[in-house]
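Posting here for the record, re: nicotinamide-adenine-dinucleotide.
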Amino acid sequence: MKIAFIGLGNMGAPMATNLAKAGHEVTGYDAAGVTVDGITPAQSAAEAAQTADVVITMLPNGAILRKVADEVIPAMPAGAILLDCSTVDVDSARAVADQALAAGLGALDAPVSGGIGGAAAGTLTFMVGGTEDAFNTAKPLFDIMGQKAVHCGPSGNGQAAKICNNMILGVTMIATCEAFALADKLGLDRQAMFDVVSTSSGASWSINAYCPAPGVGPQSPADNGYKPGFAADLMLKDLRLSQQAAASADADTPMGQLAEALYQSFVETEGGSGQDFSAMLPRFSGRSRG
Ligand code: NAD
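Prediction output follows.
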């Protein structure tokens, strides 16, 4: 396939590389002038898109996605697919899909889980919204860039699945960190805490696979000075998207709302920006009930 890849950042560059290594003809464009070995550079997003069967976008947010969509949609050949893998708000995902469909194109929203490591290893999980036909056309590309692609329903449902998943993640990470900080103050050894909780009803991905306490459990960013990993800033972005969606859908999400407030304060006023999202543990450890 001929693929245009727009947004060659931390995630986009390794994803595009994997597609090129698998034999696809990949043309790339990034506003910051990034070039990647094996990817033919284009002068603009529209130039990259004009001969593509599939245009993949991996961009920072919904506003930028809408801007790039305005540039690429008029340039794309009839029947081509616009495949957005960024994490954006559900409303932007649905608006861009409508715009693509009205122009005679296919459209998929396919945000990912798995981070930079998963992008490099080709083991991402894709959560996909759009038609069955478009999903089936893109499936071979998902199989190269990832290990699993779940078709979640019509346009926007991929983003809906992503923000619901990450709202659970933010809430369980906070719960795990505050419980570790409480356990410390109660004199419970962290290894004992891990051994009990990871095999009891308090278990979750946050403790079992990504333990926020250094030196116990699996290797995680806690063992690397809380260098991300998954940055607290990105968790805040995803929690904001979940609360924006909850407001727009009139859903009551008090735990998600509190998680957003805690990450906002951590990132914006407590020095958490640039740290892994599991650095909530030292944050709680350094505080009193007050
Ligand atoms: P990044 O900032 O490293 O990459 C984004 C790239 O988009 C940058 O290189 C930037 O120059 C480029 N860009 C910005 N505006 C552009 C435009 N108008 N035209 C072309 N290129 C433009 O971000 P990232 O970490 O690669 O994340 C990309 C997306 O993936 C985000 O939506 C993020 O939420 C999501 N995501 C990231 C991770 C992660 O661990 N990094 C995990 C899952 C999902």
